[in-house]
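## Example pair
The file below holds two records. Each record gives the amino-acid sequence first, followed by its structure token line.
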Amino acid sequence: LQYMSREKQLKIARETLEVFAPLADRLNMGRVRVQLEELAFSYLEPKEFKRLRKIMKDRLGKSHRKLARVRHDVDKKLTDENIPHSMDGRVKSVYSLYKKLKKVDSIDDVYDLIALRIIVDDIETCYRVLGVIHTMYRPMFDRIKDYIAQPKPNGYQSLHTTIKTENDQIVEFQIRT
């Protein structure tokens, strides 16, 4: 795109957001969808893309440090409970944040800039892990989503829960097989 005219850049970027990114999502190719959305958004709204990327960078520096403690505690508890698992994190994409900010009043209302993903062997263990997390922290009941019982149209299945730590830090967990 960088070598094309501005008009052609905009046309291809719009087409990518309207056709190809949703198609990738429908095919359960989430990483490809995110890459397509980020690239297209950076051409369609370059100033907004840079502004949101800076906001995220500023917020994530603080969040990563706090999140490390929660991650350690949950990992230890699941290991103590003999629940085989792996855990990693994911950072919300800039385009996803842009869409979310159209629905909420402020970035302070976006609770899933960073989420911890816990991968387990089977569905039953997903629900068991959800119970363990809810015994460790205060769940935000309006932020619990069961995409296992009701998968998304693209086939995505996962449990999502957002909790508050004893220090009022808000963390989202995604639990899946």
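Second record, same layout:
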Amino acid sequence: DELDRTQVARIAEASDGNPYALEELVRTHRANPGAPLPETVLALVDTRLDRLGPDSQAVLRAASVFGMRAWPGALEELVHEVDVEGAIEQLLERELVARAPTSRFPAEPELVFRQSLVREAAYARLTPEDRRLGHRLAAGWLERMGEPEPVTLADHFERGGLPGKAAVHYQRAARQALGGNDFRAAQFRAERALECIAEDTRAGVAPRPRGQIGALHLALAE
């Protein structure tokens, strides 16, 4: 009711049929009526993230390393000298993240990104070095917490520049897929394990035991 028909049409056209973009454009207009509209949805999200305090921006970037879900303890693992609790409250208030009704880890409340675009925009703000370090720290935290999905650990270790550790978990993931008769997933994970082992070898790391490599080829054969 606060907008005339021309303004409504302008915002609707700029959203290009994307409900999230429409919501963000309304927020942008409410915060700064008459301001030029961002040309892309990602630019729109970036504008919104720029309005956050430095602690909240740091915590949001850390959360993006884990994917769509993160946990306060995990965030404290990745950021230091930051008011993580206060940042989380601001992110909840700004409706960038929400509290999940249940958590993967009972001892840790779970936070979820409300939109994948927000997660993508936050992740894009990390430098390649920060991403590698973040994934390495994320893998360590998840491993200590008893992450049940080996492929999740493998992915973080690989992105963190530790292909040897990634290979161990890809092998576990391949066996898990075989146990569930998911042969396509087993093949993909075994191949990823072998590629990680090859990368380790090229880097001059001691070669893997033949038994491990043989088990991976057996998984491919099955």
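Notes on the second record: The longest helix spans residues 183-202. The chain has twelve helices and three strands.
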